[in-house]
Automatic annotation (TrEMBL):
GO cellular component, one term: ubiquitin ligase complex
GO biological process: protein neddylation
Entry protein name: Defective in cullin neddylation protein
Segments forming domain DCUN1: 1-176
Function comment: Neddylation of cullins play an essential role in the regulation of SCF-type complexes activity.
InterPro entries documented for this protein: DCN-prot, DCN1-like_PONY, PONY_dom
Gene3D superfamilies: Cullin, PONY binding domain, EF-hand
A GO MF label: ubiquitin conjugating enzyme binding
Membrane-spanning parts: none
Amino acid sequence: MLCVVFPPLGPDGMEKFCEDIGVEPENIVMLVLAYKMGATQMGFFSKKEWVKGLTELECDSTIKMVVKLDYLRSILNDANSFKSIYRYAYDFAKDSDQRSMDIITAKAMLSLLLGKHWPLYTQFAQFLEQSKYKVINKDQWCNILEFSRTICMDLSNYDIDGAWPVMLDEFVEWMRMQRNQVSSSVSS
């Protein structure tokens, strides 16, 4: 039975809640649940957020929440809903007192959101690992999604004169250098 009067507010309560519904805390469905609840801070739900979310989902027991998990996952299949959740994830995951998201958190969130669906995600994560970037701002964050949706895996439709953030220009340049190095070593 979910306890609406004393919801799990902090990380320990969230861990217990996840255990009760059979989901790892790092599962993307927990991000969707946080989005539905309008949670403002990762790992914490206020009583108001908890009540709002569970009321909207019509859940008053653990069993009902388990049944809703497939519905929550299905929300990710709608491109507009996914975009909203992706944008929500930025403010949700960054430190509330910061304007930008630190690169470690950004890489974890990008892995969660794009890792399985964006063919260039692994290369992008490698690029971030060796880059000068210590934070990602909201404009960069939003453009990474757009880039992942519109740019071909071979980068053939990337317009260097387009309005992409410098980070993505640098990623494309890095990718082309990586591919040239592979081509050179294969032809030698």
